[in-house]
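Long-time lurker. I teach an intro course on protein structure, and each term I like to show students one example going from raw sequence to a predicted 3D structure in token notation. This year I'd like something fresh instead of my usual example. Would anyone be willing to generate the tokens for the chain below so I can use it in lecture? Attribution to the forum is fine with me.
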Amino acid sequence: MGQGMELALAAPEAATTPEERVESEFLVCLVAQAGAVMCASKPAAVFNFVPRQRDDADAARTMALALEAAQTYARSMRAYGMELRVVCPMPGRVALLAWRPAAVERILSSEDNRAFLADFGYDTSSTEAYVTCTLERLRAYNEALRRHQACRGCSCEACSQLPFPHEIGLLLGYPLDDVRGFIANHGHGCTERGVWKVYGNENAARAQFARIKDDERRCMRLFRQGSPLRDLLVLGAA
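-- Reply from a regular --
Happy to contribute to a lecture. Here you go:
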């Protein structure tokens, strides 16, 4: 594990061992889901890595390899100004949080942002403290999902009341007005939608949506063309 820092492992179908296949699948997922974080057009991303399982017999082994891949790359990415943390392993998937500490510091530099987060009980004394609080909220949500796994996706009362921390939108780079608007309106009545639902400045949001999409495409294109993860991580490290 870890050879993807120097090699572009962009073709899981070409892997010759289960380890190589899962590692390549992980890298494809990471670039697809966190490419905008690599390019620094988003401060953070929350996503799931769902490795392909050939049959029930190899499920446990596949998930162990998925977790190993996430932990291995988390250690390597830190040197390039990007953090990756396992939120928690779940049945069939690994929930992950990726972020640029420098970008999160800029979020916390706003007094309005800190006041908003304080209202939700977040510790904003440091980037690490803030991210730790976020991880705790995400883990609590995923644990609630695990408990209701059997009825996930239905409309039962237990599932409809799962406490997703929508204030996390601030960490993901959504403007404060839009995060507030989403929470106050329960996700209804937005004036624009793209990466997030817009309740504030539509023009600024559209411009940011376009930048994020361009960066995601550029990152994946470079990866498919042979750039290893190390080269992608320096795109937004400055």
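Some talking points for your students: The CA atoms of residues 148 and 158 lie 8 Å apart. Strands lie at 44-49, 83-90, 93-99, 192-193, 197-198.
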